[in-house]
Design brief:
Layout (H helix, E strand, L loop, with lengths): L3 H4 L19 H14 L7 E7 L5 E7 L9 E6 L3 H8 L2 E8 L4 E11 L2 H8 L4 H9 L9 H14 L12 E15 L7 E8 L2 E6 L3
Antiparallel strand pairs: 1-2, 1-4, 3-6, 4-5, 5-6, 6-7, 7-8
Length: 216
């Protein structure tokens, strides 16, 4: 039986609508428009997105990462440790999905596509723009690997700080950099009353973006 206190939770969405007439014909321009509105609304973590990957055994995994750019309006840029679980899974199977959820605007965006490593100069430029403590942390953390204790991690951090004492910025670790997800499908979801939500699906074709409405 479902937990009744959870089953009874619901909200009627009624703030906005999403029509074909109002939506941009280009999916990435439409995303940029919605992202700008999320930023202007000062929502918490508007660039946070769920990144879903799949392992060699077919097991999916998901986690939150931050959008760091839309390079040349061609894709979604994020950064990570290439030796992390997501980094290894993307290297083995370079397809992924992203989900943005902006509850303050009653909106969701789902993205599916192929993934490439970002150019090295772009990864280095971003890495060296980060706070020094974050640069040290990227060198110190063997992301996704089992460690014995918090103290072990802090000792690694201190060792890196000693190794690079007096340097800022640090060189970018070879195991750290960016990925660009190049979208093939983008779905825009706008909450509407009575659960009759607006859903517009854009699919990339040889001639551009093709748009269709989906039932909620």
């Amino acid at each position: 039986m479902p937990d009744q206190s959870l089953a009874d939770l619901r909200r009627n969405y009624a703030r906005h609508e999403l029509s074909e007439a109002a939506a941009d014909a280009d999916a990435l321009r439409q995303f940029r428009r919605w992202l700008d509105e999320a930023l202007q609304a000062q929502l918490d973590e508007p660039t946070a997105m769920t990144l879903a990957t799949v392992g060699p055994d077919g097991q999916p995994s998901a986690r939150i990462v931050l959008l760091k750019g839309l390079p040349d309006e061609a894709g979604f840029l994020f950064f990570t440790n290439y030796d992390s679980r997501k980094g290894r899974e993307l290297a083995a199977s370079p397809r992924a999905a992203l989900t943005f959820f902006w509850p303050g605007l009653e909106r969701q965006v789902r993205v599916e596509g192929t993934v490439d490593k970002a150019p090295e100069n772009l990864s280095t430029e971003y890495f060296q723009s980060r706070p020094l403590s974050s640069q040290i942390g990227a060198w110190a953390s063997p992301q996704s690997q089992v460690i014995g204790s918090r103290e072990e991690l802090e000792q690694r951090e201190q060792a890196v700080a000693r190794q690079f004492a007096g340097q800022n910025p640090l060189p970018r670790p070879p195991h750290w950099g960016g990925f660009v997800l190049r979208p093939q499908r983008i779905e825009f979801w706008q909450g509407r009353p009575s659960r009759l939500h607006d859903r517009l699906l854009y699919e990339r074709s040889a001639t551009g973006w093709q748009r269709r409405r989906l039932a909620p």
